[in-house]
Amino acid sequence: MRRMFGSSLLVALAVSACGSGSGGVGSAGASGSGARCADKPACRQIGACAEKPGALAGDTRATCAPATEAHCRQSHLCAVFGACAFKNDACVVGSDEDCRASKSCAAEGRCKADPALNAYQCVATAHDCQGAKICTEGGMCRVGKTGYCEAENEEACQKAPDCKHKGACHLVRASGVAVCRAKGDDDCQQSEACKVDRACKAEDGVCTPG
């Protein structure tokens, strides 16, 4: 669940610095700072493919930001979070269809567009939580107030396959959402992840090699 709670991060990233160094050509016939934006990782990650002038008077610095829906649709934000529409210089959630096509739908039950609740990521419904991997493997089967699937109680975590496989046996709260996590190295050391992948140390609730 480290993937969630990224709304503020997505907003911050959506205006990323273009930089002043020379860059390649981002598209046929393109050159200059606009092309440098298209060549940067942020173009693929958050759709920040076009130059945007400085916001303050006299500010000669340029930043990179989405400028069209096409920029958003080719981005990681669209593929993973369903933020495929373009609005106010940012990639945002626009439709249920985009949400259902996103990776977060099957994995995390976030298959519905609800911009009033979260403009930058799709949200879950009770039905979608039940059928998602986060429920069937992770024990997080109830939709919470913030639009994420969460665990009802610690028993739900302990009965989930991820308790045995990944040591995620305890209910903890992360940014207000009840999630299943490993609380300590003991959880990891009893898991299959430790036996198979030597992921025997708990770090931020996840079993990792160490």
At a glance:
This protein has 210 residues and is α+β, with helices and mostly antiparallel strands.
Describe this structure in words.
The protein has a domain at 1-92. The protein has a three-stranded antiparallel beta sheet with strand order 1-3-2. Strands 4-5 form a two-stranded antiparallel sheet. By secondary structure, it is α+β, with helices and mostly antiparallel strands. The longest helix is centred in the N-terminal third of the chain and has 8 residues, at 32-39. The chain has 13 helices and 13 strands.
Residue fraction in strands: 15-25%
Structural class: alpha+beta
Which bin fits the share of residues in helices? 25-40%
Instruction: Identify the strand order in the major beta sheet.
Output: 1-3-2
How large is the radius of gyration?
20 Å
> Which ranges are low-confidence, i.e. pLDDT below 50, for 5 or more consecutive residues?
1-32
Biggest pleated-sheet summary: 3 strands, antiparallel
Number of helices: 13
Morphology call: globular
Order of helices and strands: HEHHEEHHEEHHEEHHEEHHEEHHEE
For the termini, the CA-CA separation is 21 Å
Tell how many strands the DSSP assignment holds: 13
Mean pLDDT level: 85
